[in-house]
């Protein structure tokens, strides 16, 4: 068996055990990044030096001028999958002597784009002045931290305005077909509605009180989607494009739809929000994710917190 055959066996084994989006992602990572380098290698020839070289190739492979390759995050994900494939082979008593545990990529923290309080106020004023279903959705995401797929998949039956809760049970995304398939319209991709990325992502989110009257004005039938008011959804890519149009209209630079989630979490931390509750509202798998990602407060917040020590220092 060579490495290509091992990968094929691995994909066949996980086919019915993972979400469709996960399977497609793994398949594409294997065919686009792993097999071009390891395709014809026999399993007994796979060694750590070879995998380190693959890592280097992925990091430097990119633009035609050679200045840049895949991001450390992307390479780390590819190597994680590669390790799982090797462990899969070893667990099936195949002759793979390589131990890939020490194969790692250094990932430097990337500064998150967060709207400043002034930008947030400017955005809210614009959305309120030009209110429609899309802008209502953007406003809701800004004040609840909803992911774009969660918002696109949200139907009115999961928005309880009387009790003040939103139930997040599904996410909407467009992915390639699981098999080599093109539909009757020539599309190589299709929309899927699945459970969110983890069990913790299935959650209940309190509706901010000031948003309730706004939501009431747009409410339609329970089976209708929040963003469209119909029984067909708005695609994440469409919503992202509409959001970018709003960014151009407000002259806010460098923001994506996910910036709204970062902004919500950052404002919560700045206002002293209890971290465990914030973690559950965001749908994180653990509090540590919330702490590592968002509890790196601004200089202004640090200054404010240090002032709490003033009275003690004066008493010395």
Descriptive report:
- The protein has 316 residues and is mainly alpha-helical.
- The protein contains 14 helices and 5 strands.
- The chain has helices spanning 3-14, 20-38, 48-60, 72-91, 117-129, 133-142, 148-152, 212-218, 236-250, 257-270, 275-282, 287-294, 299-306, 310-314, and strands at residues 159-160, 165-168, 171-176, 189-194, 203-206.
- It has a 3-stranded antiparallel β-sheet with strand order 1-2-5, with no helix packed on it. It has a two-stranded antiparallel ribbon with strand order 3-4.
- It starts with a helix and ends with a helix.
- The model is unreliable at 62-66 (pLDDT under 50).
- Residues 110-307 form the Tyr recombinase domain.
- This is Site-specific integrase.
């Amino acid at each position: 068996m060579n490495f290509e055959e091992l990968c094929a066996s691995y994909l066949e084994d996980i086919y019915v055990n993972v979400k469709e989006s996960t399977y497609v992602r793994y398949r594409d990572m294997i065919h686009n990044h792993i097999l071009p380098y390891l395709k014809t290698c026999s399993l007994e020839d796979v060694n750590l030096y070879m995998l380190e070289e693959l890592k280097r190739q992925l990091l430097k492979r990119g633009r035609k001028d050679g200045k840049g390759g895949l991001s450390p995050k992307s390479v780390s994900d590819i190597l994680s999958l590669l390790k799982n494939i090797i462990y899969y082979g070893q667990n099936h008593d195949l002759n793979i002597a390589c131990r890939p545990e020490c194969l790692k990529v250094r990932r430097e923290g990337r500064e998150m784009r967060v709207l400043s309080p002034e930008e947030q106020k400017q955005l809210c004023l614009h959305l309120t002045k030009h209110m429609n279903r899309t802008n209502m959705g953007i406003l809701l995401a800004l004040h609840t931290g909803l992911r774009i797929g969660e918002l696109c998949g949200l139907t009115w039956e999961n928005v309880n305005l009387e009790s003040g809760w939103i139930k997040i049970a599904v996410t909407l995304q467009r992915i390639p077909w699981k098999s080599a398939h093109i539909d009757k319209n020539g599309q190589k991709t299709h929309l899927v509605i699945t459970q969110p990325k983890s069990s913790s992502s299935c959650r209940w989110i309190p509706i901010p009180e000031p948003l309730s009257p706004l939501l009431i004005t747009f409410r339609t039938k329970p089976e209708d989607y929040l963003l469209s008011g119909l029984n067909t959804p708005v695609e994440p890519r469409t919503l992202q494009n509409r959001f970018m149009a709003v960014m151009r209209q407000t002259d806010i630079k460098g923001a994506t739809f996910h910036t709204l989630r970062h902004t919500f979490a950052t404002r919560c931390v700045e206002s002293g929000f209890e971290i465990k509750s914030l973690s559950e509202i965001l749908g994180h798998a653990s509090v540590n994710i919330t702490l590592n990602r968002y509890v790196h407060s601004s200089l202004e917040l640090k200054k404010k917190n240090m002032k709490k020590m003033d009275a003690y220092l004066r008493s010395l």
